[in-house]
Specification:
The chain is an alpha+beta fold. It has helices at 24-33, 91-103, 141-155, 191-199, 291-305, and strands at residues 5-13, 38-41, 53-55, 58-61, 63-68, 71-76, 107-110, 131-136, 161-165, 181-186, 203-206, 213-218, 221-222, 226-228, 234-242, 247-252, 255-261, 266-274, 279-287, 321-326, 329-332.
Length: 333
């Protein structure tokens, strides 16, 4: 097995070059203060980073968010080989520019596809996306729709990697930068190796740079690897910073094969389970607000996120929110 190391970063960031409030230098400094190892600046239809570079220990990667009414797409690692303004009105417009970016060697991520304000309104399965942004900005109900679509893709055997991105423009009452944070298990802290690991699904997403971490092992294999199914195949799960009241679920395909709710804070929690079926295994940590906070949050969603299906006067159908989740380990016969 190749020697790998975990690096934490934010894959979706904006500066004053589009609609953020920080300069590139200010944003780099802010990401350093948050304890990140890498960042991808993705201004709307604008290339803020000519070439990926290091600022001290911070890897600053080239990116751009292709943005128009039909949907938003991140391009990582290569400059978009067209000059704005782009024509992005039709499915063919998106197909053309994505194809050009792929030919240049760029990595393509589908952004917040079920966002109530700016979702992806074309056929998501018609494009060669390398990743999908399952968790966009602070946790809200639209992200659960992103998660459900992604899991459905996994069930179809589509190995599309999930990522998280803060979509940072500015902080509000809560810190938005690096919320969420994507942890990547890469061979080195280089643009090539970080992006390669993201595409291979060697990552998990969590609420912040200092939040809960989930590590999966099956023998020498880790998140993003493929293992062979056997009668005694064991999946080992380790969680750091497991908070009281949070629930860990481990899935073998759609089936929950392990579930526990933490009765108290645990700096480290470990368990192991049998893998039963071929397909994949993954894990996630979820939590719920108390009923009063749920009502307040539901009202905030309706006001600021325009989230459909969430009622401001009741929390009856308010979903469990994700605190952290992993990409799969794939399981073959």
């Amino acid at each position: 097995m190749d020697e790998r190391q975990w690096y934490k970063g934010d894959t979706h960031l904006h500066t004053i070059n589009s609609d953020g409030i920080l300069t590139k230098g200010q944003l780099v400094d802010a990401c350093k203060q948050r304890g990140l190892d890498f960042m991808i600046i993705t201004d709307h239809n604008f290339n803020s980073v000519e070439h990926s570079y290091f600022d001290g220990d911070m890897l600053v990667m080239q990116g751009q968010e292709l943005t128009d009414d039909p949907g938003h797409v991140n391009v990582w690692g290569k400059k978009v080989p067209l000059e704005p303004p782009y024509t992005l009105n039709t499915a063919d417009d998106y197909a053309k520019i994505i194809d050009l970016c792929k030919k240049e060697g760029a990595i393509i991520s589908l952004n917040h596809p079920f966002c109530s304000q700016c979702g992806f309104h074309l056929d998501m399965e018609a494009y060669p996306f390398d990743c999908v942004e399952v968790w966009n900005t602070i946790q809200h109900s639209d992200n659960m729709k992103n998660r459900d679509w992604w899991v459905n893709q996994l069930m179809k055997g589509n190995r599309i990697a999930a990522v998280g991105g803060s979509d940072f423009h500015r902080d509000y009452v809560l810190p938005f930068l690096a919320c969420p944070t994507t942890y990547v298990n890469a061979k080195s802290k280089s643009e090539k190796d970080i992006l390669e690991a993201l595409c291979e699904g060697r990552s998990f997403v969590t609420n912040s740079p200092s939040s809960s971490a989930i590590f999966l092992h099956c023998g020498d294999c880790e998140i993003g690897d493929t293992v062979k199914l056997s009668n005694n195949q064991k999946l080992e799960i380790k969680v750091s910073d497991f908070k009281k009241g949070h629930t860990l679920r481990v899935y073998n395909n759609e089936k929950v094969i392990f579930e526990t709710t933490s009765p108290k804070y645990a700096e480290a929690y470990m368990t192991s389970v049998d893998i039963v079926d071929k397909g994949f295994v993954r894990a996630e940590i979820t939590y719920r607000f108390n009923p009063l906070v749920e009502k307040i949050y539901a009202f905030a969603e309706k006001t600021f996120f325009s989230s459909k299906g969430v009622q401001s006067d009741t929390a009856k159908d308010f979903p469990d929110f994700i605190w952290a989740f992993t990409n799969p380990i794939w399981v073959e016969e």
